[in-house]
Amino acid sequence: MAESGAPQMSLLEKKIDDQIEYYFGDHNLPRDKFLKEQIQLDDGWVPLETMIKFNRLSCLTTDFKVILEALSKSQTGLLEISEDKTKIRRSPSKPLPEINDQYKDEIKNRSVYVKGFPTDITLDELKEWFNDKGNVENIQMRRTLQRQFKGSVFVVFDTDVSAKKFVAQKDLKYKDAEMIVLLKEDYFKKKNEDRKHHRAEVKAKAKHEKEEKQKQAEDEEMKSLDEQTGCLLKFSGELEDQTSREDLQELFSGHGMIKWIDFTRGAKEGTILFKSNAKEALDKAKAAHGDNLQIKKKDVTWELLEGDDEKETLKKIIEDQQQSLNRKRGRGGRKFGGRGGRRERGGRDQGKLQYQGKKTKFESEDECDQEPASPKKRALDDVKAEEVGEPASKQMKTENGSGKQ
């Protein structure tokens, strides 16, 4: 390239030189898969015929003479021109930096987050705005997954001093818009704090909703209890060990519709929940048995539950009902348990209620950045919102420009 004292570049020549040096620069080349493949074909040389297929360069010029003239005036020493004037490459005397943690930290320390740009701004307009704000090496336009510009950029300055100097400027504006400016590291700290705050808000909201649902469930439960007032009948006595819920169903058959029986075989007491008034069912059953209502010829004390006793017993029945339904769901929703009980197969117990152990029977239980396809498709501002200036092992499609390439 040209030595010091080379002729002054025109505006077009400077844009061409900046763009090509960006392609081969520290920020783009390590992540540009296509260009890395090209430089491996011929000892680092890339034909100008290939270079003019890059969109941003082709928008400036496709004339080899103009490109070579611009590069010949560059004083960075980054690029070399082949003897036959048909190819260019990154100078072997300027190898890419080693991509290690130290290098990544160094890039991060001179990177800045800037927000407040209009979403329809172009990369050239961004470069123009940053032109007098320090020595900028790289600009990344942050985008959504739908490739829409988010109005914010990550900018890499030449030194951490330049980056801090830019951040220290007051009242930065793009046209009339106030800009948000943070060192990149401070930006990520703020984002993490915002995420923690958001998670805390979500957790608090979920807790509140859970409490509201629980309160609603309790209100519904109390409403259910009120609707079933007067439907509980308690019985006790020296019952036979073989007394079952089927005996109670038979005893009140035709006198009252039973909704739930809380009774265990061998127990001496239990509770019956009727669909309607328990006293009416009891009176009808007594009348049908000469006012001496026994269970399997055993005397029984019958008690209509009222007040707190009634509510507590109803609560227990509702809990037992829910547990029974949950057990059914845990068995895959089979109505009668097992792999096909007698009722399903038409066995001898078909049509009868089944009572086993402590199970209580309730009538409702059974109802209950990218690689381009070709250089022509490469777009300079197609950079995804990953950490700018920190070259990755895989290239995302990018022809992102910079203030100084």
Distance between the termini: 15 Å
The total strand number stands at 13
Q: Give the helix proportion (percent range).
A: 25-40%
Q: Enumerate the strands of the largest sheet in spatial order, edge to edge or round the barrel.
A: 5-6-4-9
Please identify the oligomeric state.
Answer: single chain
Number of helices: 13
Q: Tell me what portion of residues adopts beta-strand conformation.
A: 5-15%
Question: Can you put this structure into words, describing what you see?
Answer:
With 405 residues, this protein is an alpha+beta fold. 38% of the residues lie in helices and 15% in strands. It is built from 13 helices and 13 strands. It has helices at residues 11-23, 33-39, 48-51, 55-60, 64-72, 101-109, 123-130, 160-167, 184-227, 245-251, 278-288, 307-330, 342-345; strands spanning 46-47, 79-81, 87-90, 111-115, 136-143, 149-157, 173-174, 177-178, 180-183, 232-236, 258-262, 269-274, 301-304. The protein has a 4-stranded antiparallel β-sheet with strand order 5-6-4-9. A hairpin with a 6-residue loop joins strand 11 (258-262) and strand 12 (269-274). Mean pLDDT is 80; it is low at 333-405.
